[in-house]
Design brief:
The chain has 6 helices and 12 strands. By secondary structure, the chain is an alpha/beta fold. A 7-stranded mixed beta sheet has the order 2-1-3-4-12-11-10, sandwiched between helices. The protein has a 3-stranded mixed beta sheet with strand order 5-6-9. The protein has a two-stranded antiparallel sheet with strand order 7-8.
Length: 199
Amino acid sequence: MSFTAGVIAVQGDVSEHADAIERAGAAHDERIEVREIRSDGVVPDCDLLLLPGGESTTISRLIHGEGIASEIETHVSDGKPVLATCAGLIVAAADAGDDRVDTLGLIDATVERNAFGRQRDSFEAELPVAGLDAPFPAVFIRAPAIRETGADVELLAEWNGRPVGIRDGPVVGTAFHPELTADPRLHRLAFFEPPNLTQ
């Protein structure tokens, strides 16, 4: 079976996510075509989407300006999966706690930008994640935290008592950068472990 994966490529770790989703697909014997998305008209052709990190105000401005935002919203309303990481989580949330970020409301959550410090405070942690059989090597860079979630949001991971990984329907959001490791399990969890595409 083959799938088309779109990486929102207006900013952030585009090539790293492309590599990670290809590795995750290979682990499930799935062929993945990766498309980088910088303008409208591409998202409707995608089976799954990645919304990477970067700078959340810039990402939100560009996806709305290029007509991509409404296509992402339709993608989710159609039940297709999304993995939103770091700044992508902020943009995907219902409330970014910052009026400069025009959020998509894909995840019923309020997030706090830079909750774990600035660039110099970046760190790595062996993070237990629901659905994974061993801790995940999470990379936190100017990471947000999840302050509040709706009743239907599933908690996937916490660090020091603060939520850093959640799932809301077909959308998985992480405060950390799974694409910066050689471990494809988070991408597998987001795209191939739930029933979205494989059943």
